[in-house]
Structures are given as structure tokens and as C-alpha cells.
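re: ur question from earlier - yeah i can do the single chain one, its not a big deal. heres the input i used so u can compare w yours
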Amino acid sequence: TGIPMWIIGRSRQSEPDGYQYLGTPKGFGMRVDVTGSLAPVMGVDFVAGYHYNPHFFLGLGVGQRFLNGYIVPVYADFRMTLVDKRVSPYVGVDLGGAYYQNRDRIDPFFGLNAGVRIRNKEKDQSRGDWWIAAVYELSDVYGRNAGLRVGYSF
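and the output i got, formated as C-alpha cells:
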């Protein structure tokens, strides 16, 4: 009929192994991310936002980066999951500002990430998704930064 299911999304997925995978429900969601990078920058982020359907998430993130002092990015976080399966590729964009204690000012902050979302099986009784991605961040504070991000949403 009118709208294909991949556009409007579903709350549960059946897979060939017989398990039902928990879909990302419409509504409020949170995520914790840990980032390590090629430059000596480590970070932790907390993101809260809204799942419009299993494909689109928009939230507000705040984090802390450690590089000869601390950096606090505050940003809008947008993620688009490309398919609604147990293992799904996604792309994300972060846009905001970052405060660096050594400069005592706020500079622009931009991030791109691309990776996979891995859903837990319903029989595991865990409702979270794992997110694994390559990350590229650009900030006046520490320049260009590429690395790996691992997150868990609940």
C-alpha cells in the first residue's frame, strides 16, 4: 500500500534465527559515548533526545574531552539509521560549541560519525543498543581529530 515499512519504521524485527529484536521506540532516549582518538584526546559524552522513529534521532549532547586540560563540548546530535535491522549502518552529525579551560572561551565544534548500531536480542532482557563508529571532529580548540567511538543507548 502507500508508505513502505522502511520509511515509517517498525517497533520489532523478526530475524531468520527466530529472535525478535527490540526496535527503538518512538520517544525519549539517552546515550553514553566513549571516544578515543589518534590525537591524545579521550572523551565521554552524554546525549538525551527524541527518537522520531527507528531511523531519526535528534538530541542535545554534553561531553568532556581530556587534552592538556579539559574541553566541554555542548552540541546538537542528529543520527540517521539507514535500515531497521539488528545490525544497521548509521551516520551522525554533531554541531555546537566547545569550552576549553586553557583559553577560557567557547569555540565552534563540529563532528561527523559513521558506523553501526547493534540491537540486543529480546531474550537477553536488555533494551539498549550498542553504537560503534569512526569519528571525525573539528574544533578550534584541538583542530582535526579522528578516532573510534563506542556508545550504549537506553
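The two ends are 33 Å apart (CA to CA). not sure if urs matches, ping me
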